[in-house]
Amino acid sequence: MELTRRDVIAALTAAGISVGAGAMSIELTDFGGSSGKSASNTVSPVTNQGSTATEGLSEAVIDLLDAVAAVIYPSTVENRREFVARYTQARTANRPAYREGMVDAAVELDAVARDWYDTPYAAVSSSTADTLLDNLGVDTADPIDDGTISEQIRFYLIDDLLYALYTTPTGGSLVGIENPIGHPGGIKSYQRPGINTDSNQQSNE
Amino acid sequence: MNSPAATSAISNSDSDDNAQDRTPSEQADVCIVGAGPAGALIAYRLANQDLDVVILEAGPEFSDADRLTQQEQHIRPGMSDPWKMGGQRDAYTTAGRGYPLNAARVKGVGGSTLHWQGMVMRLHERDFEMKSRYDVGVDWPIDYTDLRPYYAAAESALGVAGAMDNPYAPPRETSHPLPAFPPSHSDSLFAPACETLGIDMHSVPNARNSERYDGRAACQGYGTCKPVCPSGAKYTAESHIQKARSAGAHIIDQAPVQRLVHGDTGEAVKKAVYMTPDGTEYHQSAQRFVLACGGVENARLLLLSQSDQHPDGLANTSGAVGRFFTDHLFAGVGGQLDEPTRQNHVGFNTSECHQFYDDTSPVEGIKLEFLNYAGPSPVNKALTADTWGDELLEQLQASYGNHIAVGGLVEQLPHASNRITLNHSETDTHGNPVPHVEWSIDERTSRAIRRANNIQRRILETLGASIEWTVGPDSTGPAYHQMGTTRMGTNPNQSVVNADCRTHELSNLWVVGSSVFPTGGAMNPTLTIAALSLRAADAIFDTL
């Protein structure tokens, strides 16, 4: 199932971001591409950016977030990297505290990967990336923004990306609902007997 | 109890607590305590007639701009309560069955309409005459015909979407201001089973815009009506607070009233004593005072205002202040069908049934609701799962799609032993004793819940559903409709306020909201709160 420009907008809407104005505007016209990894084991370490950073999330952070998404998103999802990059950049713009929390969690996860596997998290295999999260206990950790490393990873990385996916029409449709909660999909879908693929991507119908 | 603290990462754009002018008005015709639907409607009606109105609200004024952030706070685990209830400000204790008070109310401009679902039915005629008809509870001092024009006015004020398709509803002269929301696919699945059983389905009146109304948007289907509607389609009392403000009313938020102070004779209130976030105590004088701060705080404030002349609390010679605390009980049966049921697209219901409401065995009212949100939402399920990737998707696909349920509300008759008192062993932020909520249900209420369950089970069995859960007498909970604690009546020895919601004992003090309901029926109370408030506003105006 292909994540589209509309899905990015839907995910941002659910996260309270108005797309298209000022610093929150995002380039969506060239949306498309593969879901494969772009990172290699030579990628730069994920580093703290500081709360005053205005340039957005670094490429290294985006690489890591995409690697996390590769683990937690269904394998049938396409255009994953573009979705993750554009969503997280816009989601954290003008939210320095949240961006700092997300980066801090990414730094911690990357550091663990380098400690355990001598490889950046974004460059380990998918199975290793999955196992690493499991071994950290992230699968059963409570999402706590100022909690343990595992709890912060759950809050800022896992839950944020799952929230983004499953509040979109595409993410919902994977499960059978084109208008999941958090998405303003109008008041027609609840009346229909099944998913209407023609209006599947329509927002505010 | 929840912590009111916002997370450091996701926070709302709170205004500076100390930046606003929270000093009292020099001259006020009317001082209203509480900015929920009762207070807001009265404030607007009186301010619109050129009266000087001041509203003192204990909670904050939330910004419209934060509703999507609050929606995320609601959906995602680990985030704060979007309405910031809890902590020492809202401390309480409870006994008996126990009552989850801070899940059941919101302090803020808009009151509990900020988090309500928005179902707005009129009480039936029999609800006003339970003693005369069935020798239970008490009669109201007014009947349906007294309230009927105010119900219509309330429906216009709130913007009710409804249809005249309910053969069991009390008589009405006009249609609803907005067309009803169309039935859901899920409703269409119920229809043949209900027809087989001779059970009538009809539309739900919703205080939710089915089309644009009164400057507010039409429903956009976010699906999180309760507790947050980001589109503004769901009515909240913020609407009438804004209208009141435009008409000249002075709204002071984060100004919890500590007590009312009466004059030397004890026959009239002189001032409301309130605190502001910087710790300053202010006194607001007025000619008239209106308590509109909910079924628990109305009673608590009267009790906190005890004096030498009123040693048991203001307006409490009857001893009824705080007593007869009632709520509606949820009853439900749910399961799964072998076909898609299309749940959780919207957060409101479109079909219900009043057919059993006026039955006499038992006399407790039963209202059935055909749910549009049975079973878990995939979003919530994903965020609480302990797996991810393809395995998570398989779990979500298995858990979503076929759930179906019939819910409903059951009436609880008033009992003096269910009550609000002051717990002097615990104090709130300002050192006042916290409310103590004693609440239980009796055997006859349990019997009515079982009857509701039997009807619900028959419907699902006829539908061919596999029944997986029942919310019956043991697992039931309150519907968060706090009623009865300052009951209305004609006898000052048995009630707190008269038919106009004016206290029997203090000539310039009114109490409004569901706390004045002598009995509560089984209908969601807010439309009746609104109608009574509009009626009380007329009565207040007539005295000025």
Description of the structure:
The complex is a heterodimer of chains A (205) and B (544). In chain A, 46% of the residues lie in helices and 0% in strands. Chain A has 205 residues and is mostly helical. Chain A has a domain at 59-175. Chain A is globular and about 55 Å long. The model of chain A is unreliable at 21-25, 33-40 and 199-205 (pLDDT under 50). Chain B has two domains: 1-156 and 235-326 and 414-441 and 480-544, 3-Layer(bba) Sandwich (FAD/NAD(P)-binding domain); 161-204 and 329-410 and 443-475, no CATH class. Chain B has helices spanning 37-47, 67-75, 130-134, 144-158, 185-197, 238-246, 294-304, 378-384, 389-399, 443-463, 526-542, and strands at 30-33, 53-56, 93-96, 161-162, 178-179, 202-203, 250-252, 257-262, 269-275, 281-285, 288-291, 329-330, 332-336, 351-353, 366-370, 403-410, 419-427, 433-439, 466-471, 509-511. In chain B, strands 6, 12, 13, 14, 15, 16 and 19 form a seven-stranded antiparallel β-sheet that branches. In chain B, a hairpin with a 5-residue loop joins strand 9 and strand 10 (281-285). In chain B, helix 1 packs parallel to helix 6 (238-246), helix 4 packs across helix 11 (526-542) and helix 5 crosses helix 10. Chain B is globular and about 70 Å long. Chains A and B meet through helix 4, helix 6 and helix 7 of A and helix 2, helix 5, helix 8 and helix 9 of B.
Key structural traits:
heterodimer, A: 205 residues, mainly alpha, globular, B: 544 residues, alpha/beta, FAD/NAD(P)-binding domain, 7-stranded antiparallel β-sheet, 20 strands, 24% helix, disordered N terminus, oxidoreductase (chain B), FAD-dep_OxRdtase (chain B)
List the uncertain runs of chain B.
1-8
CATH architecture of the largest domain in chain B: 3-Layer(bba) Sandwich
Count of alpha and pi helical runs of chain B: 11
User: How many β-strand runs of chain B?
Assistant: 20
- Distance from N terminus to C terminus of chain B (CA atoms, Å) equals 43 Å
Question: Percent range for helical residues of chain B?
Answer: 10-25%
Mean pLDDT of chain B: 96
Bin the helical content of chain A: 40-55%
Oligomer: heterodimer
Strand content of chain A: under 5%
Q: Major sheet of chain B: size, sense and barrel closure?
A: 7 strands, antiparallel
Number of discrete domains of chain B? 2
Number of strands of chain A: 0
Radius of gyration of chain A: 17 Å
Structural class of chain B: alpha/beta
CATH fold-level topology of the largest domain in chain B = FAD/NAD(P)-binding domain
